[in-house]
Amino acid sequence: MKSAVHTHRARHTHALGIDVGGSGVKGAIVDTMTGAFVGTRFRIATPDKATPQAMGRVVARIVRHFSWQGRVGCGMPGPIKDGRVLALANLDKSWIGIRAHEVYSDACGCAVKVLNDADAAGLAEMRFGAGRTLAGVVVVTTLGTGVGSAVFVDGVLVPNTELGQMQVNGKRAEERAAARIRKEHGLSWKRWSKYLDDYLHAVENILWPDAIIIGGGVSKKADKFFPLLTVRTPLYPATLRNGAGIVGAALAAASTPLKH
Ligand code: BGC
Predict the structure, then answer these.
(1) Per-residue model confidence as pLDDT tens digits over 137-164
(2) Test site for ligand 1: of 117, 123, 246, most ligand atoms within 8 A of the Cβ
(3) How far is Cα 258 from Cα 119, in angstroms, rounded to an integer?
């Protein structure tokens, strides 16, 4: 096993991508030239109290699991500027104002690049997934515990858009359109698609995108809800699905100079 790890380290194109979510923290070594996982993904359940300290320990466990010493990228919810978490809906509020890259770098003993999780997923979809041939204004929206978004203009990311926080029919869009809501409230596809459709209409009326890519685990069930959506913008299911956040975090790490 050790020799495999050393081979990973030797490859400059490999990076460890980590996706911090409301229910699980997942990591994998990624070949950033192809977007493929090198070996298998490793997942740890998100602690009930997802404080910076607790999450630092979880991320460090993932780094140790892979005996990884190269570049590390980590996607997490919330707008993140210069490594600092500015707002949060689905992790412990004690994160707000904290320099996430310092928390993770200190816990792991190596430099960790931190970015918004939906931005990470979007980067991966644009490079290797449904977005690779799409130009113009492309919105990638992830539907999971929350609703995330990544906006691209001719392939260039406009970071930290929080379209899931828009007010739609008097509520934050993610309080209705997140995939979690369908499951938790046992909503029919028809009922939930209406919420999603309202959110997508709000997005297209504001941004007039050329395409919208729908990601998150639910995108593999696109046949159940795509036919029920009525927006005029061409819609595409994400092709990398749940792996996108990991791949995109690794891509972000690979394009960042290594320093602590
Ligand atoms: C957060 C976003 C995040 C999304 C998906 C939302 O609650 O505000 O920043 O991208 O959840 O995790």
Answers:
(1) 999 999 999 999 999 999 999 999 999 9
(2) 117
(3) 20
What spacing in Å lies between the alpha carbon of 79 and ligand 1's midpoint?
Answer: 8
> Does the pLDDT value for residue 129 go beyond 90?
yes
**Cα Rg for the chain, rounded, in angstroms?**
18
Q: Contact at 8 Å (CB) between 15 and 254?
A: yes
Structure tokens at 51: 């404080």
**Antiparallel, parallel or unpaired: β 211-215 and 137-143:** parallel
Query: Could you give the percent of the chain with pLDDT greater than 90?
Result: 87
At 2 the pLDDT is 43
pLDDT of 5 over the 60 cut: no
- Hey, what domains does the chain have and what are their CATH numbers? 2-119+244-255 (3.30.420.40), 133-239 (3.30.420.40)
pTM over 0.85: yes
Report the alpha-carbon distance of residue 140 to residue 213 in Å, rounded: 5
What is the identity of the amino acid at 67? S
Q: What is the DSSP secondary structure assignment for residue 171, as one 8-state letter?
A: E
Name the strand (E) or helix (H) holding 176.
helix 174-177
Q: Which of 82, 79, 98, 76 lies closest to 27, judged by CA?
A: 76
Choose which residue among 114, 125, 143, 147 to substitute to test ligand 1 binding: the one with the highest number of ligand atoms within 8 A of its C-beta.
147
